[in-house]
Amino acid sequence: MLNACESLAGADEMPQTVLAVIGMSDTIDDASAIVFASAFYTALAFAFE
């Protein structure tokens, strides 16, 4: 897993080495990032149980 700010620029090269890529085209505030990351990684964890 890779979680990085302003990751859209490098997202084009990622599909060569990983199965899925999510890149963000803009910034979000810290509170929104925490909510998103929490929900996203929780969903991933439950998907792989």
Taken in chain order, the helices and strands follow as HH
Distance between the termini: 17 Å
Total DSSP helices: 2
- Pairing-aware structural class of the strands and helices? mainly alpha
Mean pLDDT: 78
User: Runs with pLDDT <50, length 5+?
Assistant: none
Strand-residue fraction? under 5%
Q: What is the gyration radius calculated from CA atoms? A: 12 Å
Indicate the overall shape. flat
Would you write up a description of this structure?
This protein is 45% helix and 0% strand. By secondary structure, the chain is an all-alpha fold. The chain has one domain (8-47). The chain starts with 7 loop residues before the first helix and ends with a helix. 0% of the residues are buried. The model has no long low-confidence stretch (mean pLDDT 78).
Task: Show the helix and strand layout.
Layout: H1 8-11, H2 30-47
Keywords:
2 helices; 45% helix; 49 residues; mainly alpha
Short description, anyone?
The protein is 45% helix and 0% strand.
